[in-house]
Amino acid sequence: MEKSNIVNWKRKGEIGVLSISNGKENYLNTPDFLNLDDLKKWTSENKLKGIIITGVGRNFSAGADMEILSQLAKDKHNLNKRMSEGIAILDFMEDLDIPVIAAINGICFGGGLEIALAAHMRLCSSKALFAFPEINHQIIPGLGGIYRLTQLVKKGTYEILLNGDMINAEKAKEIGLIDYISNEKDALHLAIEKLENMIKDRSTEVIHSVMKAVRNSKKLNKNEALKSETELFCKLAVNVKPLQ
Amino acid sequence: MFKVLHWYIKDRIGFLELNNPPSNPMDPVFFEEFYWWRTEIVEEKDIEALIIHGKGRHFSSGAVLNDLLGIISRSHTQEGDIDKISKFLNKNSQIFYSLKELKIPVIAAVRGVCLGSAFELALCCDYIICGEKAVLGLPETTFGLIPGCTGTYILPKLVGKSLAIELILTGDTFSPFQAKEWGIIHEIVSTKEVLVEAKLVAKKLVKNFNQIFKSI
Asked: Which residue in chain B has the smallest CA separation from A210?
């Protein structure tokens, strides 16, 4: 196991597990909750085909520690720098060419929810709770969470952002914030099962191509996306042997 | 006129039947004929809706893998890269997607198997009706490939990134009931009623289309 700021990294075969570890609530002490260079190093490890991000213990993360944040805010330049770093971490995670699944138990608030939104798939336990409580402190989510939320969820985003409403697992599933609810207490098992189903028997080339193509569907216009899809297809096809 | 397509018009509805039973595979001849049909024929006709279906028990099993691999491998050997063949095959995606540009409703009437490129063709239609025993999916990754005919572009727009990644990476097939829950298809009827229902839907959509255009 390796550690970077408050995040642990552990390999389970072809899967890498990032776990947020900071006391009972896994508060994000700073917006740059891990070091981007460490994340880059870990994710370039050999034969890595997927990542799970979760929280150690009963909660995913309660988000920023308001006391630390207000201390940080006294130095605007420093806060800005750390926020940019936090944004870069989540952008990097979202643009990875391997699937990233958030396994969410318990509380997933603020910055914690922003991390979960940057994953490609979200699973939670039936007792999980979601919220953007920033509004109660006269601030807004600052790590790309508003953009990602409105991309993912079509109804009720103003209520989530302006009222700071708390949402349970069932409601989160209903509005599309969550993909699956685990029957077990710990969503990690379902996350491993889902991820293994997606990556076992798949080469890293195929996984990378699928992730690239799906990302292109959101980032490129139709003609460019279709052109890139065909190119990715042909590159793979060159190395596929005909069936007998 | 066609070898693997059957094109006919009835009650001002155009029917494009994939006609190479039992599984109506999409071989190079299919793509050639489909291109010809789409660019030269369909818009010339006075029709108010379009129904695409397969002859017999199945819609289509999709592209013929070995034909495709052969074409790509030969081009790669000759040219030293995939640029030329990629440009050539990209026409297939563009022509599938161009169904969306037709100014009439396009309905996929799906019985039996509808996999890979065939499922991608259905995704390019405005409305998908399935028989209850239809089998849907994008199994390309199980062959070491990815969907190459619009699937990776349309599916995420339809169901979101997470489910699209899961369906494409696992390559699992799924039922029309599952597909309807996900919002991929619109309607399920008994297998023998698929075409009858497709015609009713076509007429209904035409009526709605006309009302919309009249009100503008």
From this structure: B146
